[in-house]
Amino acid sequence: MADDSGQDKTEDATSKRLSESRKKGQVPRSKELNTFVTLIVSAALFFYMGHYMVQGLLKMMRHQFELSRDVIFDPLTPVIYFKLAFSEGYAVVIPLMIVLMIADLLTPLLMGGWNFSSEAFEPKFSKLNPLQGVKKIFGIQGIVELFKAIIKVLLIGFVAWNLFKVYFDDLMMLDRLTVEQAMKRAGDIIVMSVLVLSATFLLLVLIDVPYQLWNHQRQLKMTKQEVRDENKESEGSPEVKGKIRQMQMQAAQRRMMEAVPSADVIVTNPTHFAVALKYDQFGAGAPLLVAKGTDLVAAQIRNTALANKVPLVAAPSLARALYYSTELNQEIPRGLFLAVAQILAYVFQLRAASQNGWSKPVPPSDVPVPDDFRQ
């Protein structure tokens, strides 16, 4: 038999392991996805708000550069113009900052979801170990990050160089335009460049996101022994569970034995099976099975019944049929009504004979049991 050392992590993470990892701040994240969302949102803002931002910058330039001699030599001018520049620049930049902040807050929902972990803020002196740092640099994760950085530089560099060649003539013509025309044209070039660069990041995102999800699952993989140990912790060891089941069975058996003295009759095999029935003559329901058992339990039922003067009736086929077809505290099935009625009729006759001093009736010798219930 092969030795299951449990060293190979081949099992998927359990729900408990996933919950614990989130508490530690271990959730899948993609830096490329965050960068892509920031760039694409910025490009969209420049596209829709570019005219407003250019007009705001032109307004600032007019106010800051169109100064008279008297204003320049006024000691209060720096303060006044600083406040004016701050307010105008604030009005231009604040919409962009608000939208980017909202985008940064919503981006984690795309991968991993929001997660706040107090454990992630706890200082860990193991991170100061230089050997661990070297191991991370030259480990698989470090190699993957290096590979991604190289691809990123090559891809962005290639796209940026081609954008420069495409817009080279336009950039050289900016000095021949008016200030307003030059700023408008420069804004258009910036918007298109950011859009194209954002689109190139989509390729990195399509590679990085599946890798980060796979790597997160790989890091949380468990060995078979870890899964077994976790099941023991959450559900209890087999020995403890067996002991609990034994105690539950003993408690159920005690409750069952407590119901035997109130039964109307005990149907027996006569030695291997014993079934206790109780019938309310004034009720609308069928007879109830209040206790049942085989071998030692059956003997205990018979002894309890004899001690409490509950009649015993030997009907082997009926006893087996009742035992297998009816659960505790349930009504007997309709197919056994006739057979049980004969037993109860005998019990009621026996009870009446005892009270009135009559001769005891003859117990039923042949109780009919349908073939569907024969065991």
From TrEMBL:
Positions of region (Disordered): 1-26, 356-375
Residue spans of biased composition, Basic and acidic residues class: 1-23
Keyword Transcription: no
BP GO annotations: bacterial-type flagellum assembly; protein secretion
Entry's localization field: Cell membrane
Transport is among the record's keywords: yes
Gene3D superfamilies with a match to the protein in the record: 6.10.250.2080, secretion proteins EscU
Membrane topology per record: Multi-pass membrane protein
InterPro entries the UniProt entry points to: FlhB, T3SS_substrate_exporter, T3SS_substrate_exporter_C
UniProt keywords, alphabetically: Bacterial flagellum biogenesis, Bacterial flagellum protein export, Cell membrane, Cell projection, Cilium, Flagellum, Membrane, Protein transport, Transmembrane, Transmembrane helix, Transport
One of the record's GO cellular component terms: plasma membrane
TM spans (from-to): 33-54, 90-111, 149-168, 189-214
NCBIfam families, A to Z: flhB (TIGR00328)
UniProt record similarity statement: Belongs to the type III secretion exporter family.
Its job: Required for formation of the rod structure in the basal body of the flagellar apparatus. Together with FliI and FliH, may constitute the export apparatus of flagellin.
Name recorded for this polypeptide: Flagellar biosynthetic protein FlhB
Organism name: Methylomonas methanica (strain DSM 25384 / MC09)
Organism phylogeny: Bacteria, Pseudomonadati, Pseudomonadota, Gammaproteobacteria, Methylococcales
